[in-house]
Amino acid sequence: MAELHERFAKLTCAHVADACLRLHIPVRTVSLTAVFPARIAGRVLPVQHVGSVDIFLEAFGSAAPGDVLVVDNAARRDEACAGDLVAAEAKAAGLSGLVLWGLHRDTVDIKEIGLPVYSLGAIPTGPLRLDPVPSDALEFATVGEWTVTRDDVVLGDEDGITFVPADRVDELFTLAESIRDTERRQSELIKAGTTLREQVGFDAYLAARAERPGLTFREHLRGVGGAIEE
Questions:
Q1: What is the CA radius of gyration of the chain?
Q2: CA distances for 151 relative to 10, 100, 140, 160, angstroms
Q3: How many contiguous H segments (helices) and E segments (strands) does the chain have?
Q4: What is the mean pLDDT of the chain?
């Protein structure tokens, strides 16, 4: 898990999402915001929220150090599904963060605890209901259109959240690092006065497209080794 954090610290979710696209792995991203600026990386510890904190306490009992609690609260906007007590207990259990498909509360206290928490936003109201606990409440969580399990890793930064298969992390990170390095070189060239259009031969692409209307920009980029979109 330490290597995961170390490598992701030098990447972004955007790099990883681009790597997923190139490797034909579903790009599973959602727009969530950190309670305070903090990155997150760890194996998914899924839970379906039913209105009571005990489901979280049960999940913590099977957590491994560095796991991230991923909470499915069906994107409800009328209640918070976690607050300072859940964050504090998660930190005590060795988790590296919380990802809430729902709202949080106790923002000031969560910041003081210092555990990364991503959510759809804040609201003062706590849980408003107590539903029956599904038999699979600790087996998966649905976040946006994605269903994630303990076979997934969750990554988070200022752009949001990305889920990737745990058994493809090394492959994805290696490609993401290559994408990062290419983009940095391109950025430095722009700063030095060589526009991106010049770098990718954009005028040549327009001329070629005029002769071959079906030519896509991505096909052209592959030919010049300047992939910036995939």
A1: 21
A2: 23, 18, 10, 20
A3: 9, 12
A4: 94
- Quick one: tokens of 129? 């209901």
**Amino acid type, 115:** L
What size, in residues, is the chain?
230
SS3 61: coil
At 136 the three-state DSSP class reads coil
CA separation (Å) from 82 to 36, 71, 152, 160?
15, 9, 22, 19
DSSP 167: G
Q: What is the pLDDT of residues 127-177, one digit of tens each?
A: 999 999 999 999 999 999 999 999 999 999 999 999 999 999 999 999 999
Please give the structure tokens belonging to residue 124: 């003062």
pTM: 0.90
Give tens-digit pLDDT for 124-141.
999 999 999 999 999 999
Helix (H) or strand (E) holding 153: strand 152-157
Q: Residue 226's pLDDT is what?
A: 58
Q: Left, alpha or beta for 160 (phi > 0: left; psi -120 to 50: alpha)?
A: left
Q: CA angle, 167 as apex, 162 and 173 as ends, to 5°?
A: 55
Rounded to whole angstroms, the Cα distance separating 181 from 154 reads: 23
The position carrying tokens 């920009």 is 217
Torsion over CA: 207, 208, 211, 214 (sign): negative
Are the C-beta atoms of residues 4 and 153 closer than 8 Å to each other?
A: yes
pLDDT band at 227 (very low <50, low <70, confident <90, very high): low
